[in-house]
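Practice problem 4.
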């Protein structure tokens, strides 16, 4: 199990990598798969938060300008906070959900990355939920306090929490900017093998 310190360091590094990818207009490990974004709704909120942090940084810099011993560390902390907030948004943007021929990779910023084999999925549907209760065997990845897609699994898949604790997940709820397109694509991908078998000459 990861220690809290190592988990935080890994998370910070992923944020900085995501920030660099975002500035370069690239995505993280999408390969030949189809990406589905989920950050559109939270973008204005995150930039609003970053703006508030900038104003707070400028204000504190002015107030503490005559106290250099305090001014410098506070300024560094404030600047880092702004970078952290922007990095969180960057991680949401450059780490989309990814559907390929064999699996659906569900992600949430730099701290959730769950790969689900398509043959484990028994149901995928549009389902708007604004409230979520903690339930054993379920994973809720809300954006803006809501999820739009629900996955039901035939057998549990292993998910590791932020600190490395393993959990067995049988149902996943998550958000997508275009949930209808994601549901349609997953359904088609799940049916593709059977269609190929049915269409194979005998």
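Answer key:
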């Amino acid at each position: 199990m990861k220690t809290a310190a190592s988990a935080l360091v890994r998370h910070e590094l992923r944020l900085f990598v995501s920030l660099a990818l975002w500035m370069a207009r690239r995505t993280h490990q999408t390969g030949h798969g189809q990406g589905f974004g989920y950050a559109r709704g939270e973008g204005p909120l995150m930039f609003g938060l970053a703006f508030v942090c900038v104003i707070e940084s400028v204000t504190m810099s002015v107030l503490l300008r005559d106290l250099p011993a305090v001014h410098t560390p506070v300024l560094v902390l404030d600047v880092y906070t702004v970078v952290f907030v922007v990095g969180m948004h960057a991680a949401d943007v450059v780490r989309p959900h990814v559907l390929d021929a064999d699996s659906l990779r569900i992600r949430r910023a730099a701290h959730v990355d769950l790969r689900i084999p398509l043959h484990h999925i028994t149901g995928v549907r549009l389902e708007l939920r604004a409230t979520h209760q903690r339930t054993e065997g379920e994973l809720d990845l809300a954006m803006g306090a809501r999820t739009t897609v629900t996955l039901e699994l035939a057998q549990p898949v292993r998910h590791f929490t932020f600190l490395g604790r393993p959990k067995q997940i049988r149902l996943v709820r998550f958000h997508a900017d275009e949930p209808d397109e994601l549901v349609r694509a997953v359904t088609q991908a799940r049916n593709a093998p059977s269609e190929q078998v049915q269409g194979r000459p005998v």
